[in-house]
Amino acid sequence: MSDAIDLLRDLVRIKSVNPALVPGAAGEAEIAGFCAGWLASRGFEVHRHEATPGRPSIVGIARGSGGGQTLMLNGHTDTVTIAGYDGDALDPRIADGRVWGRGSGDMKAGVAAMMVAAHRAHGRKLRGDILVACVADEENASLGSEEVARHYRPDAVIVTEPTDLELIVTHKGFVWFDVTVEGRAAHGSLPDEGVDAIAKAGRFLTALDDHAKALLDRTPYPRLGTGSIHASIIRGGEEMSSYPARCTIRIERRTIPGETPATVLAELDALIARCRAADPLFKASLVQGLTRDPLVDAGPSEIVSVVEERAAARLGHTPRSVGTAGWTDSALFNALGIPSILFGHVGGGFHSAAEWADIASVEALTDILTETAASFCR
To answer: Does 125 lie in the same domain as 42?
Structure first.
């Protein structure tokens, strides 16, 4: 096995389930310590960032001689749960040309490739710095990359999420809202006194479904299509013999460039107003939750050109530039005016019972990142 695959297997063996997703889970402390030691032993200047206790991110810096551009390679070390995994989630089994195990595809393969690539490229005595950011919490709220972005301003960022060796240059964002529909509590035998908040919520859900269909008819954004909306969670009621006083619906709105939390709020306000006009007893309020901006396609850039050239030399063809519906940490750096793209290995089974990373693609990714860093930072 190559250095990158050996490292990938070491990373898979470390339990790093995100505690925001699974209360009491291990988190990133052990894997951050491992990455810090690996980088330090190879001459990197290592920084630990832990604004949120127990959720560390590691940044290793391979210093150049000065006067060159700085490239950040960014990947997250947290994973989703290992519960329900088919077999031992922490056993990096090799079969069918793949490394299997929780986090192998999403995205410890990308982390291993970028660490090895940065070490290889640093040996070429570059002028610019290479930053390797092994970040926490991407699977929940991206606390790690948010913190890292406050401390570093590279000239470009490559996030090594699995992309099937294609260039992702744009992706959707999202905004979460809680819609609380108010009723009036009363004994189940007193319909004249009670107002059923759950039944009233049904009116809003019908309007939401109509709105979701209407979004599909809007003008699509290149490589992304249109925005979308859905109800994710609904909670209401206390007991069988009572009219529920309230019902809360948690909503996710996936956004494209040009759509903002303010525009989404206006859409939802309009839905509530429509429900109120149809039913004087309908009453609801909105609370905005987590929001993440889309990754805007910035068009041609030096980092895109360099990755295309180096990938074409290794793969025999120029990778496609595409978009994706999911959100990634790259948008945090893009919002700061830093050219940010995604380029990663082939993998599958993400968040499922059997996860994998394709070995040949991880080795190709490592080579491409090595040459990209050497070229960009020279």
So the answer is: yes
Domain span at residue 216 reads: 173-292
pLDDT tens column, 162-183: 999 999 999 999 999 999 999 9
Q: Cα torsion for 343, 171, 288, 140, to the nearest 10°? A: -20
In the predicted structure, residue 93 carries a pLDDT above the cut 90: yes
Burial of 58 (0-12, 13-18, 19+ CB in 10 A): buried
- Helices 3-12 and 109-122: crossing angle in degrees, nearest 10, is 140
Give the CATH number of the domain where residue 109 resides.
Answer: 3.40.630.10
Task: Enumerate residues 6+ apart whose C-beta is below 8 A from 25.
Answer: 15, 17, 18, 19, 81
57-67 pLDDT, tens per residue?
Answer: 999 999 999 99
Does the structure show a pLDDT above 80 at 20? Answer: yes
Residues 103 and 220 in one domain: no
End-to-end Cα separation, the chain, in angstroms: 29
Q: Same domain for 213 and 354?
A: no
User: Would you place residue 298 in the very low, low, confident or very high pLDDT band (cuts 50, 70, 90)?
Assistant: confident
Name beta bridge partners: 175: 253, 291
In whole angstroms, what is the distance from residue 160 CA to residue 108 CA?
A: 9
| Total number of domains constituting the chain | 2
Neighbouring residues of 162: CB distance < 8 A, sequence distance ≥ 6: 105, 106, 107, 109, 110, 344, 345, 346, 347, 350, 357
Pair 122, 366: CB distance under 8 Å:
no
Q: pLDDT tens across 96-155, in order?
A: 999 999 999 999 999 999 999 999 999 999 999 999 999 999 999 999 999 999 999 999
What residues contact 137, with CB distance under 8 A and at least 6 apart? 18, 20, 28, 52, 55, 76, 78, 143, 144
Asked if 195 and 246 sit in the same domain, the reply is yes
- In angstroms, the CA 13 to CA 146 distance is 26
Q: Beta-strand (E) ranges in 11-116?
A: 45-49, 57-62, 71-76, 93-95, 98-100
